[in-house]
Amino acid sequence: MKINFSDFKAKRRLTQREFLFISLLVLVLEIYLIATLTIMPAWNKYSNDKEKNSNLSALSKNLEIQFANKRTYEKNIQLEEFKINKLSEEIPPYSSQEDIVLTMDNYSKSTGLEIDSLAFDSVGTNLSNLQKGIMPSNGKSAVNQQPQASPGTQALPGNTGNTTASITGDGVSLAFKGTYNQLYGFLSDIEKSTRKIIVSNISAARDADGLLNGTITLMYVSYREPGDNGQYKLTTPSTGGKVNPFVPYPGYKDGSTVQNSNSTTPIKIIDPDFYLLLNTYRDNAPKVIMGVYPRTETEVYDDVNDLVKGKITISQSGGKYKYTYTLGTSVYTEESALAVKDGVIRMNVTSQPRVSPADKVAIKMDIENKTSLPFEIDIVSDDKDMPRFTVGSKSGNVIVKR
Cα angle at 129 between 83 and 375, to 5 degrees? Predict the structure, then answer.
């Protein structure tokens, strides 16, 4: 059989146009691959470097401008430091009663106004709370209810949990005698003083000799830094190689005390968050006192020789506590941080023994604990036969320790 190979020959070849089109496609593909693998990465790097250089140039120009204003900034800093120093002279971070006495004596000598007596009252009053308008139900400020002699150690307001600066004031009462011109000069010296002194009240009457006899109430203003609990600090001198009595003895633990003279085992003393004091009916101080430890400006009082109805309600919101406590008709409400040691809210009750059957001072306290923490009432002392402190209704986690 004869095969005809002529049938297998290509019947048609590529035209010139088709060849050019295929060549163009191959060229485009090569250009795309070259651009993708070499040109684009280099272009991206160039763009990033250009943007970074632009940012650095702007930062450099800003630094040049800031450096050119360096002297202006230094002058502004010096001006602000000068203002702070002047403000510290006007409202210092402390209140020196010695300086107050000497200042009043100098004003008296320079004007001739005779000062018969000088008394400090409402020492360390927290003026920030007064500005907030914290008032009990009887319409009197809890600060103004403080008696002249409060049992225990006088402590300035604030606690270790304080996180904001506060303004405090020391009240000074003067009894004076002199002429109108002498009183005018005395008040003029007070107004010219670099110290912030507020004249809150003046009362005077003319005697038979034509002289003024009266009283002046002043308020010396100062401020307290955040975290300052107002406690005094003692710097001890060098003992010259001798035993320093202020150095803790071996085995001493801070915040602890020994139970008795025969025991060397220290007991940890924890400061309470609230305190309640019950005095005898013969005591000159209020019969019942309650407050936030150690802030005397939070105290409320009841001064009747009878059973008093009291109540404390406390709730928690974040890191702060909102509490309201009442003694009779006196009410105090505040929202602030509390110490809350070891996850327990504490209230110490200190009660004096009854002195006679006529001594009827007592309190029945209702406790409403809305927090997730236990509320512990530690009765430090009370009358054994007829306790002055009794617990009324309770809600929440309440623990009573006698």
Answer: 130
Closest CA to 331 of 357, 363, 362, 300: 300
In angstroms, rounded to a whole number, what is the distance separating the alpha carbons of residues 249 and 402? 31
d(CA 206, CA 210): 6
- Nearest alpha carbon to residue 161 among 274, 269, 291, 319: 319
Look at residue 248 and give its three-state secondary structure: coil
Distances (CA, A) of 22 to 17, 25, 229, 336: 9, 5, 90, 84
Q: What tens digit of pLDDT does each residue of 348-359 get?
A: 999 999 999 999
Task: Please determine, for residue 154, whether its predicted confidence score (pLDDT) is greater than 90.
Answer: no
The verdict on pTM exceeding 0.90 is no
Q: What is the CA radius of gyration of the chain?
A: 40
User: Would you say how long the chain is, in residues?
Assistant: 402
Write out the DSSP string of 204-236: EEE-TTS-EEEEEEEEEEEEE-TT--------P
Q: With 0-12 CB in 10 A as exposed, 13-18 as middle and 19+ as buried, what is 156? A: buried
Tokens representing 6? 């002529």
Fold of 97-224: Alpha-Beta Plaits (3.30.70)
Return d(Cα 247, Cα 241) in angstroms, integer. 13
Q: Which one of 26-40, 47-61, 88-102, 249-263 scores highest in mean pLDDT?
A: 47-61
Give the start-to-end residue ranges of the domains of the chain: 97-224, 268-401
Q: Is 60 helix (H, G, I), strand (E, B) or coil?
A: helix
